[in-house]
Each structure stands twice: as structure tokens, then as C-alpha cells.
């Protein structure tokens, strides 16, 4: 897209505010993506927008940059509400908004979702925020409580509307829309346009500008792509293992901030690697010299941000490692494009934190290429390689160096101190090794809770891969004895009773949505649901953490506190009045089970 047919479109020419331009320049955004170029102008003008684009095309910035530009930070009241289908996406969008608004004075964004205490959210709401990013269920709860007032709302964004439809939240979305001022601006983004979403758009959007962006595959087939699930302090350990065992010529490592480039370069240099930072604080001359050192082999590793690494073409770069996952799939494509150029082969590695699994799937869908999970080298593998290199250094020195002066010296030392020659050699090896230990130490085993969380994330990933998220019509049926789930022999189910039923106008989707968001449980792991007059039962995986059960006990559905507890009899069957109608499992067509 071009301006007046000649000049390329820029974020400046689109009218994005200066503090936001400064922030996105640091992040690495150079030119607007198609969805951004088409969406920013109408949103800046205050028009409603209907956007059809795949996740990963840069749509978060497409709505965030113009709506943040219009935000009034001197007002401490919700002006922008973003509805997201899952807590992961809500957190991701909130973090992106915070990064875009880095240089906006007195800016406050609050993610509200299940699994976080109400008190934390209530405290932030009382202090005042301009932007709310939330899941429908928790947003509804705050509106009902009166803790979230939308009477001054200027704009509302429905992110991944088709996903909210699949998860059964579309009625909740309409309820929220009905509680917003009629003058508010709406931006609706959806990858597809099923009839229900089209109906919502026709009902609530006024003279909306329509934007359609086709998804494209943009990664070279010569690049092998892998990911490793790691986070926080474990990243450096994982990186060290990869560097020790991967055969690479030169490597480009991407991080999100300029300060992180310096910090990681220092840590790698301290571990004996030839590593340098490449960031926007360096002069053009410094950057050119740094790149030249990479080209001629005096430096092997560059740690950079998106903004300085775009356009970098160095034939030696055999590996690109995403130490920090990018904000969108387009940035990922640009990053890994620094290797595998001109028909050459390359390898791209992506570090993914547990709560970044969603972005991993987004990248796979946007690039239409699977990313293989890699096996991180074990401590034993690393130590074996270190010992091998240590032995080789001894052999190379004996073969290529004159050691005779040292032989006389050490022979004299051995006679004088009557010391075993092997002990002398060991002492010299220790001196040569310096502060860096020769062997890695096996880290202590992770707590059971962390291992359980890891399994849960893997299950969630598998559910998403099969496209079953929110498809409660396919949920497995469990009998009264809570038999193991077919295909997952390690998972047993328990029956719980909740204090909400037909008299509260509850539906299975309400129960599934609340439990999935509040308990951070993927919807496909929620079993049989039976709704009675004044209570319901639901099957959940056995051995759930006490903290999760406590959160679910305090959760509200349809204005009623769940008071979740184990079912009353030994078989798990509820006591009380029978259902008024057939048991419901969230949309399946199985016949009801007979009570024992």
C-alpha cells in the first residue's frame, strides 16, 4: 500500500501518536502490515470496523495503536474494553498494550480473567484504569457487582470473535455489548465469518469499515523450525546446552528489549562464547562494525532486537534463536528469515514459556508449517561433550606445542614435593579451567505441582491441535464409577456438585466457561454436566490442586456462587431432586444416564 501512489505507508503517516511511535520503533515495527495499514485510519477517525484476518497478522497492533492514540490518560476510567476468548490471549493483549503505551504518561491497563483473585482486580479497578482486557465471564461478573462501570466507554474490541462463538461465549458477548453506551466505537476481528458473528456485526456495528486480509505462507522451506518449552531463569541454562551441542557457524539470538541484548551478551561472554549485542542505542558505525565482525568470523553470536536485525543478511548465520517469543507471527517470519537465505539451509529455534503456547499455535497457523518440539540436551549429554573437548585440547596441545620447558619445571616440582604427577596435572587443569566449572550439575527435580502444570499445558496443546477447543459436543462420557478417560489412561475423573441449577437459568456453556477460565482448565477436560433444579454436577479431573478447587468454590455463575464440593454419595451421584429435563453435556446428543 502506498501514499499518493509513491510514498510507502508509515506509522507516522497513518497518524499514530508520537509516544506510541517511539515504543513501536523500539519493539521493531518498521512498516505497517496490511491489516494495520487498512485498520488504523478508520479506527483513528472513530469508525466501527469489521476485520477478517488470521491471528498472527498483526491485528493486536491494528486496533491498539489507533485506540491508544485516542485515549485520554488524564481520565482514570475505562475508555477501552477488549474482550478475548481465553485468559492466555487476554494476558498477551494486555502485555502488548502496555508495551505500546510505554511512553504514555499515567497509562493503566488491567487484564481481568478467571484464575486470578477478585481482590487483586477490585483493588486495581478502584485505583482507576483506562483499558480493560478481559474474558467475557469475568467481565460480566464485574459488571454485575458494579465494580466495572462502562458508562464512559469510548471503544470496544471483540478479538477472535469466532473463537468466542466456538467456546459458547457469544451470548455473554451480546450481554456485555448491551451494557455499553450506544455511542461507543466497536472493532470486531474474526478469522472466519459464521452466521452468528455476522448477525452480531449487523446488530451492533454502525456503518462499519470492512477489512479482509488473506493469510500467506511466508517462511522458507529450507529452514528447519523447532521449539523448546522453557521460561524465566531456565532460558539461559537451555541456551547454554543448545550452544554446547549444536553445530553452528554463526547464530542470531532475538530478545525483546535493548537492555536484554547487553545483559545476555555479557552472560554468554562470561561463559566463553564470542557474543555481542546489536541494538538501537548503538551508532550506525558501531552496528556496521559489529556486523562486519560476525561476517569475518571474529564474532559468532549476535543478540539483537527486531528493529536492528531486519534486513541483516550474513551468509554465516546458520541458526536463529528466539530467546523471547515475538508479539506476532509476522515478526517471527522476519526473524527466522535471517537464515536459510538464497537456497541455503538454516535452523530456527523458539523458546516458548508455558503461557505462550497460544502464540506458538498462532505462528504455526499463520505460517502453515508445524514447529517440531525439540529435545533439550541432558546434563549428561553436555558433560560428555565437555569432557570430550577437554581431552581433545590436551591431545592438540601435546601434538602441536612444545611442552618441554614445562616438563623440566614440573619434574622439579614433583621431586621437591613428592607429589603424584596426576595430582599435579589435575591442579593445572583446574587452573586452566578458571571460574567456569568443567561439568554441569543436575538441577533438583521440579515440585510435583510444576510437573502437573506441565502435563496440563501439554494436554491443552493437544486439544487445540485437534481443533476440539470449545467443542463440548465431543466430550467423553464418564460413568458413576469415574472410569479412566479412554485414550488417557492416566486421568481419572471425580464428580463435583455446584450450587447453581435450572432456577438460576444456567446453561452448560456457562458452567464450562466459568470453570475453564477460573480454574485454567481446558474445556475438553471438563466431563459430564447434569443440571438439576437448584444445583448441578460436573465431572472434573481427579487430583486437582487445592488452590484451583478453592477458586472454583468462590466463582460466580449467573450471579450465583458455585460453592463447588465433592458429590455427596460414594458413587458420586447427587442427592436431591432429579433433573427436570435430560442431562446436558454442553451440546452432545447422547441419551441421559439413568440414576443409580
From TrEMBL:
It catalyses: ATP + H2O = ADP + phosphate + H(+). DEAD-box RNA helicase involved in various cellular processes at low temperature, including ribosome biogenesis, mRNA degradation and translation initiation. This is ATP-dependent RNA helicase DeaD. It comes from Pontibacterium sinense. Residues 235-382 form the Helicase C-terminal domain. Residues 445-491 have a biased composition (Basic and acidic residues). Residues 436-491, 563-596 are annotated as: Disordered. The gene is deaD. Residues 40-211 form the Helicase ATP-binding domain. It comes from the Bacteria. SMART domains: DEXDc, HELICc. GO terms for biological process: cellular response to cold; ribosomal large subunit assembly; RNA catabolic process. Belongs to the DEAD box helicase family. DeaD/CsdA subfamily. The lineage of its organism: Bacteria, Pseudomonadati, Pseudomonadota, Gammaproteobacteria, Oceanospirillales. GO terms for cellular component: cytosol; ribosome. Residues 9-37 form the DEAD-box RNA helicase Q domain. GO terms for molecular function: ATP binding; hydrolase activity; RNA helicase activity; RNA strand annealing activity. Keywords: ATP-binding, Cytoplasm, Helicase, Hydrolase, Nucleotide-binding, RNA-binding, Stress response. Its EC number is 3.6.4.13. A motif (Q motif) lies at residues 9-37. It is found in: Cytoplasm. It is an enzyme of class 3 (hydrolase). The keyword Hydrolase applies. Pfam families: DbpA, DEAD, DeaD_dimer, Helicase_C. CDD domains: DEADc, RRM_EcCsdA_like, SF2_C_DEAD.
Amino acid at each position: 500500500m502506498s501514499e499518493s501512489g509513491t510514498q510507502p505507508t508509515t506509522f507516522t503517516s497513518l497518524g499514530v501518536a508520537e509516544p506510541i511511535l517511539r515504543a513501536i520503533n523500539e519493539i521493531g515495527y518498521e512498516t505497517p502490515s496490511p491489516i494495520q495499514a487498512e485498520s488504523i485510519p478508520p479506527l483513528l477517525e472513530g469508525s466501527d470496523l469489521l476485520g477478517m484476518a488470521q491471528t498472527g497478522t498483526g491485528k493486536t497492533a491494528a486496533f491498539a495503536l489507533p485506540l491508544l492514540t485516542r485515549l485520554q490518560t488524564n481520565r482514570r476510567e475505562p475508555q477501552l474494553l477488549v474482550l478475548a476468548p481465553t485468559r492466555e490471549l487476554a494476558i498477551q493483549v494486555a502485555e502488548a498494550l502496555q508495551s505500546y503505551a510505554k511512553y504514555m504518561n499515567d497509562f493503566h491497563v488491567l487484564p481481568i480473567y478467571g484464575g486470578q483473585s477478585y481482590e487483586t482486580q477490585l483493588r486495581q479497578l478502584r485505583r482507576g484504569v483506562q483499558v480493560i482486557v478481559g474474558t467475557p465471564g469475568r467481565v460480566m461478573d464485574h459488571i454485575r457487582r458494579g465494580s466495572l462501570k462502562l458508562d464512559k466507554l469510548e471503544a470496544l474490541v471483540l478479538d477472535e470473535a469466532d473463537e468466542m462463538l466456538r467456546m459458547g461465549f457469544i451470548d455473554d458477548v451480546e450481554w456485555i455489548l448491551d451494557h455499553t453506551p450506544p455511542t461507543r466505537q466497536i472493532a470486531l476481528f474474526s478469522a472466519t465469518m459464521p452466521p452468528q458473528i455476522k448477525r452480531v456485526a449487523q446488530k451492533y456495528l454502525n456503518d462499519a469499515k470492512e477489512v479482509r486480509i488473506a493469510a500467506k505462507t511466508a517462511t522458507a522451506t529450507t529452514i528447519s523450525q523447532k521449539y523448546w518449552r522453557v521460561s524465566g531463569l531456565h532460558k539461559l541454562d537451555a541456551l547454554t546446552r543448545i550452544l554446547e551441542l549444536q553445530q553452528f557457524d554463526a547464530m542470531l539470538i532475538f530478545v525483546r528489549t535493548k537492555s536484554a541484548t547487553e545483559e545476555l551478551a555479557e552472560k554468554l561472554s562470561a561463559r566463553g562464547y564470542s557474543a555481542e549485542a546489536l541494538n538501537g542505542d548503538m551508532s550506525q558505525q558501531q552496528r556496521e562494525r559489529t556486523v562486519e565482525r560476525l561476517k569475518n568470523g571474529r564474532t559468532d553470536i549476535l543478540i539483537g532486537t527486531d528493529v536492528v536485525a531486519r534486513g541483516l543478511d550474513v551468509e554465516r548465520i546458520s541458526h536463529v534463536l528466539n530467546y523471547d517469543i515475538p508479539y506476532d507471527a509476522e515478526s517471527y517470519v522476519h526473524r527466522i528469515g535471517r537464515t536459510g537465505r538464497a537456497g541455503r539451509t538454516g535452523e530456527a529455534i523458539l523458546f516458548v514459556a508455558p503461557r505462550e503456547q497460544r502464540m506458538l499455535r498462532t505462528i504455526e497457523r499463520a505460517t502453515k508449517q508445524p514447529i517440531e518440539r525439540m529435545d533439550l540436551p541432558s546434563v549428561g549429554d553436555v558433560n560428555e561433550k565437555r569432557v570430550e573437548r577437554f581431552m581433545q585440547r590436551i591431545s592438540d596441545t601435546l601434538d602441536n606445542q612444545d611442552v618441554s620447558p614445562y616438563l623440566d619445571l614440573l619434574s622439579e616440582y614433583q621431586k621437591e614435593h613428592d607429589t603424584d604427577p596426576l595430582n599435579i596435572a589435575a591442579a593445572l587443569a583446574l587452573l586452566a579451567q578458571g571460574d567456569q566449572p568443567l561439568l554441569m550439575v543436575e538441577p533438583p527435580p521440579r515440585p510435583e505441582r510444576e510437573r502437573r502444570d506441565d502435563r496440563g499445558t501439554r494436554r491443552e496443546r493437544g486439544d487445540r491441535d485437534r481443533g476440539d477447543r470449545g467443542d463440548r459436543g465431543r466430550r467423553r462420557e464418564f460413568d458413576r464409577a469415574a472410569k479412566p478417560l479412554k485414550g488417557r489412561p492416566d486421568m481419572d475423573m471425580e464428580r463435583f456438585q455446584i450450587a447453581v441449577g435450572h432456577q438460576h437459568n444456567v446453561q452448560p456453556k456457562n458452567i464450562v466457561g466459568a470453570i475453564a477460565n477460573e480454574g485454567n482448565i481446558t474445556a475438553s477436560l471438563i466431563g459430564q454436566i447434569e443440571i438439576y433444579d437448584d444445583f448441578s454436577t460436573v465431572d472434573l479431573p481427579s487430583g486437582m490442586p487445592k488452590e484451583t478447587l478453592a477458586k472454583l468454590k468462590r466463582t460466580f455463575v449467573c450471579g450465583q456462587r458455585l460453592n463447588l464440593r465433592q458429590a455427596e454419595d460414594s458413587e458420586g451421584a447427587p442427592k436431591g431432586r432429579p433433573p427436570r429435563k435430560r442431562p446436558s453435556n454442553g451440546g452432545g446428543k447422547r441419551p441421559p444416564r439413568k440414576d443409580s
